[in-house]
Amino acid sequence: MRIVKKHRFNAQVTALELGYGIIGRPLMNVYCYLIGGTLIDCGQARMAEEMKSFASAHRINQLLLTHHHEDHSGNAAMIAKVCSAAVMGHPVTVHKMTHIRPILPYQHLVWGQSREVSVSPLPALVASDGFCFLPIHTPGHSKDHTVYLEMQNGWLFSGDLYLGERIKFFRSDEKIDQQIQSLKTMLQYDFEALFCGHNPILKNGRDRLRRKLAYLEEIAGQVRFLLARGLPEREIIRRLDRRQDRFVKLVTLGNASFANMVRSAIQAT
Ligand SMILES: [Fe+2]
User: Fold this and answer.
1) What spacing in Å lies between the alpha carbon of 141 and ligand 1's midpoint?
2) Which of 92, 121, 239, 261 is the most buried (most CB within 10 A)?
């Protein structure tokens, strides 16, 4: 099943929702945002045709990447070519997008692989069409994760910083301590609307980030408590595991699981 939907937040922000499911409904839909001629993230390569139609029908001068994961960068090479758009990202994104590494089988099936593309390092501020995007490095989900704050309107384009308040799994390379710090960093800024990479546009963005921060701190605190009592990793995972990630853990061959969140909290102590 393929899902393509256009959403208008207001006269200035268009969201493109893209979903791809091999059998039945997609596991997770992706949201890309167009503000003036600035596109933030560009979806999975599996939906290249749909993104190409969108790109051909709109003016896209520049593409800002929140991070290199294939559901966010999958069509960057195509957008750069079709729209003659500049692609920009964190220095680690620059490296990752010019040194594409093999991806796991589930990533191939669900998202498809990104192609190499030249990415320029981000300036301190990205100004275009009367909008001003402040790039803020927010590592934890990935080393290069960067959010874009449109300060004049209080819009936060948050990539995968939010995802949900009580997330059920981490990828194996995610860092809970860095995510906690990144959420704290963002709560120092003023914004209202949250433009998440996998959720429709959300109001009360600061409250949502605050609740996610509380949840991650709760998990990290529980892990520290059990570690201090001398419990081994395996037992801590067993006690805290909410058993909600079995399907995802199976499909991803363990790359995404609740256990990864616990392991990350143990490493952070
Ligand atoms: Fe991601």
Assistant:
1) 7
2) 261
* CATH number of the structural domain spanning residue 117: 3.60.15.10
- Across all residues in the chain, what is the average pLDDT? 95
Using one digit for the tens of pLDDT, what is the confidence trace for 54-69?
Answer: 999 999 999 999 999 9
Query: Could you tell me the pLDDT band of residue 229, with boundaries at 50, 70 and 90?
Result: very high
Residue with tokens 């709760």: 218
Ligand 1 centroid, distance to 111 Cα (angstroms): 11
**Percent of the chain topping pLDDT 70:** 99
Picking from 56, 101, 93, the residue whose alpha carbon sits closest to that of residue 72 is 93
Q: How far is the CA of 156 from the centre of ligand 1 (A)?
A: 16
Which residues constitute the domain of residue 125? 2-167+177-205
CA of 32 to the centre of ligand 1 (A): 13
Q: What's the predicted TM-score (pTM) here?
A: 0.96
Domain count, the chain: 1
Tens digits of per-residue pLDDT, 19-36? 999 888 888 899 999 999
In a domain, 123, yes or no: yes
CA of 68 relative to ligand 1 center, distance in Å: 8
Nearest to 203 by CA among 160, 166, 154: 154
